[in-house]
Design a protein that fits this description.
Rossmann fold
Length: about 220
């Protein structure tokens, strides 16, 4: 299958496999996302970075995947890793993709770095049957403690200093759920975790990372 749009043609490369257990250890949200993706699904990963998530899903779920990425270095890595990638800027929109072109559209650890978040969420559900996002929870207690101390949080999930961060729209679990409610987006499932440990008690306080699965509301 070929995807052609205003971003250009997908660039293909030769696969250099990497142990998916290594990827899962580095990014616990990968396993949470994979649990929702059926075998053989057609997946679009927005802001796919070096293609690690797509490689993980290909190894574990046998998906057919495409990525969108703007960074030249990441594009080169995707090509080396055999990931079908299209160069494009998410903040410029996704109008080149047809309606319902994918089973799942994923935005993994990229939501907080987008400028037009509301529009992007709606576009995800125009071109995909379901959407999946993961993001650092700004409401995590360690982040709150740093704010109380008068400094911007820096952590594994938020590794940047205030002056060099790409993050422009940090949010808590409650913030994200309010956004979904505002736009009649139906949350199907979610998982909150700290490291690889699932958090069910006081998740907005005790969870450092959130993963949500959603679809268009009726």
């Amino acid at each position: 299958m070929s995807i052609q749009n205003h971003f250009g043609n997908p660039i293909r490369g030769q696969c250099q496999s990497k142990d998916h257990s290594v990827l899962a250890a580095a990014r616990p949200d990968f396993a949470a996302i994979a649990a929702w993706i059926p075998q053989g699904a057609l997946v679009l990963d927005l802001g796919c970075g070096d293609g690690s998530l797509l490689r993980y899903l290909k190894d574990t779920r046998n998906i057919h995947g495409y990525g969108v990425e703007i960074n030249d270095v990441n594009l080169e890595t995707c090509i080396l890793n055999g990931v079908n990638v299209i160069q494009g800027d998410l903040d410029s929109g996704l109008s080149g993709f047809e309606n319902n072109a994918f089973d799942y559209v994923i935005l993994s650890q990229t939501l907080q770095a987008t400028r037009h978040t509301e529009r992007l969420m709606q576009e995800m559900l125009r071109i995909g049957r379901e959407g999946v996002v993961s993001f650092p929870n700004f409401g995590y207690w360690k982040n709150r403690m740093q704010v109380v101390r008068g400094i911007m949080p820096v952590s594994k999930e938020l590794p940047y200093q205030w002056y060099d961060t790409p993050n422009v729209h940090l949010c808590t679990l409650h913030d994200f759920e309010s956004l979904c409610s505002k736009h009649q987006i139906n949350i199907l499932d979610h998982r909150v975790m700290t490291g690889d440990k699932a958090i069910s008690f006081l998740p907005n306080l005790l969870g450092s990372t959130a993963v949500y699965r959603f679809q268009r509301g009726l």
